[in-house]
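Expect chain and fold; see below:
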Amino acid sequence: MPKKSPAQITSIDSPIGPISAGYGAEKVLCVTIGEQSREQAAEVLLELGFTPTEGQNRLGEKIARELNEYMKGARSHYTVEPLLAGTEFQVKVWETLCQVPYGQVITYGELAVRAGYPRAARAVGMAMARNRIPIIVPCHRVIAQNGQLGGFGYGIEIKRALLWLEGAQGVIL
């Protein structure tokens, strides 16, 4: 059996509740939100083939700092790099999503077109549901065609709070 790579978890307190981020040697592997975020991050790391270990390194400190700055409205983009693990389609959608600027929103259909899959709005929604790195890979910026919020894995109130924090325009908050 191959040895699993180690990964750590860093956590912060935020206005939307506890946030935990799992990370490996060089990249962010997952972000979880809520009271059980640390435990959920450990589960995701195991699913991805990593072994959660204790301790924190410079990357963990950088992730925590950038998430804290974002939550205070002092950061509009991240320098930490996410590991986009998924199908070719999902990765293309997530890469395209990362290009949506802070404070702006995009519809599922618009995101499908920009990613090169103009008839795949529903599949884009499914890719958003499988995003393991919310906030950093900003799936909260994707809304329904009618301007309504649509879904979000951590609930509409969290999505609303993130969009409000960014000052998003053109969305029904």
In short: Strands lie at 5-12, 19-23, 28-33, 50-52, 106-107, 142-143. The CA atoms of residues 53 and 118 lie 42 Å apart. Residues 58-71 form the longest helix (14 residues). The helical segments are 37-47, 58-71, 88-97, 108-115, 121-129, 156-166.
